Amino acid sequence: MISAIYTFAMTTGANRVIRGARIEHVCGDPSLGPEKDYAYGMRIVRKALEAITVAVTGPTLFDPQAGDIQEPSHAS
Amino acid sequence: MRLEMGSFPVRTISFGPATRWDAGHLTVDRAAALAEVRRDPRIVTAGLDIAAPGDSVRIWPVRDVIEPRIKVEGPGQCYPGICGRDVATVGEGRTHRLSGMGVVEVSSVNWHDAGGDFVETYLDMAGPFAEMYPYQRLQLLCAVVEPDPALSDESRNDAVHKAALTVSDHVARATAGLTPPERKTFELTPCDPALPRVAYIWGVHSPQAMSGSLTAFCTATYGLTQLTPPWVLHPNEILDGALTGPYRTAFAMSWTVANNPLFLDLYRRHGRDWNFLGVIVLRTEWTTQHEKQMIANQTAKTARMLGAQGAVVTWDAGGNEFIEVVRTIQACEQLGIKTVFLTSEDDATDGAPTMLEPLPEADAIVSTSFFKNVTLKVADPGPVSRVIGLERKIVHRGSGVGLHGGSDSALPTAGTLPPPWRYDDHYGFGSLSCIE
Fold first, then answer.
1. Which of A4, B43, B144, B273 has the CA that lies 20 to 30 A from B261?
2. CA-CA distance, B393 to B370, in Å (whole number)?
């Protein structure tokens, strides 16, 4: 699940949570201008695609702003 | 900060040759009031109408209901900051109010055109649907205004609300030289240090994210609606209308904010049952996790800096705004501030939680019923004899906003209509009870 309120997504039980941008535009940021908005969006979507290749044992956060896939961090 | 509130009860309203209040009767010089409204060149049409409790009347569209209040001593202006009014800090001196009445802002102008958020409220003055709202018990003076359609959204909003405030000021001014039949002094007097210290955390929607505008219309703090850090307001500022503006649902319009029974009771019992510290206005609908968590932390921190041991929390919205509200409760509890939360419940018919994020710290909750009229199974209000406002009402069906089912349509306002989709009684006005 790509979500701007990512810890909430984790507490509801989503297994793979990808940190989105903002509620009104989860996959991008129009204020960056078209090119950077697109690149940011692609980064989020790529991270989401990578996430479904990773085995998880519980709600796990994937952060597109953190470069490579991070160590899964489990919600309490 | 000391404020004397003089109340002039209004039991009947009629039109007459001069605007005056006399022994519970308000006479309104319609031509003079409308001449003041028409002084604003943005207004194209303007009319005034009267609706009384029990009348077979439906008022549509209702953007706001305003209780006429005017400062007769002390700095500033009631309902400060909005529509270009003075921003001087209010809450001192003497204020007069016309109690038992409201000026209704009636116009086709939607508050903003983004985010699928519509003015949906209509008011009936008779029947069971009317009994669900506090307005049916009021004498209503309706300002029906349409501005130049060529103007921008925000300019039309400003013009329409300014017109309603002009009517409100016009009638309130009639009391300026009179001695109020009822007076009450409001002051946060020093009190027994053993009394528990309580703050009111008042969640208020911001339309900034939905509208994409910093100046979109909504309940405003001294005229501002944008997403801002928590504001600490003296309760007297609330009494002078520092928090005011049109709203999309019936229970957070200017009249209900000014007459919030929870707030008034907190104030009335100051020095007796607790030490009321004041109001923290929490703006809601922040759009990132960072913002939501930070505003929750900062609101709780502000309450602690005020010395709060307890806090009462309300909100006036729905959806994702719940996150910053419930996390404020969590942050308060983690700082040792006990909280009580007053809220309506979400639709639980499909198995969803009645609270979007049920956190364990939110363990003292007062329910004011369900958020949606459809969950409450409110029957469609039947036909009425007279309509104030527009002859047809758009009913949004199946659009995610209407939730009435079927397709959008424009129905005769005077006929049977589905009730507005929301029934969120934020401050505990309602007279609904439940069958267990």
1. B144
2. 24
Test A23 with B288 for CB contact under 8 angstroms.
Answer: yes
For residues B203 and B321, what is the distance between their CA atoms, to the nearest angstrom?
9
Contact of B360 with chain A, judged by CB distance below 8 Å, is answered with no
Per-residue pLDDT tens over the stretch B340-356: 999 988 877 667 677 78
Q: Which helix (H) or strand (E) holds B199?
A: strand B197-205
Classified as helix, coil or strand, B104 is strand
Question: Is the pLDDT confidence value at B401 over 50?
Answer: no
Question: Which pLDDT tens digit goes with each residue over B355-364?
Answer: 788 889 999 9
- Asked if the Cβ–Cβ distance from B357 to A24 is below 8 Å, we say no
Q: What pLDDT is recorded for position B405?
A: 57
B334 lies within 8 A of chain A by CB = no
**Are A23 and B320 within 8 A, CB to CB?**
yes
Give contacts of B317 with chain A, Cβ < 8 Å: none
Answer whether B289 sits within 8 Å of A7, measured CB to CB. yes
Residue in A11, A12, A22 closest to B288 by CB: A22
List, for residues A20-63, the tens digit of each pLDDT value.
999 888 999 898 999 999 999 999 999 999 999 999 999 999 99
Tokens matching residue B140: 């209503």
Residue B131 Cα distances to B128, B285, B393, B429, angstroms: 5, 30, 21, 11
B352 neighbourhood in chain A, CB within 8 Å: none
Asked if the Cβ–Cβ distance from B288 to A6 is below 8 Å, we say no
CA-to-CA distance for B316 and B321, rounded, in angstroms? Answer: 9
Residue B25 CB partners (closer than 8 Å, separation 6+): B10, B11, B12, B13, B14
Give the residue with greater pLDDT, B369 vs B208: B208
ipTM: 0.74
What is the domain partition of chain A in residue ranges? 2-66
Q: What are the residues facing B60 on neighbouring strands?
A: B389
| CA proximity to B101, closest of B174, B35, B18, B40 | B174
The CA distance from B342 to B252, in Å, is 14
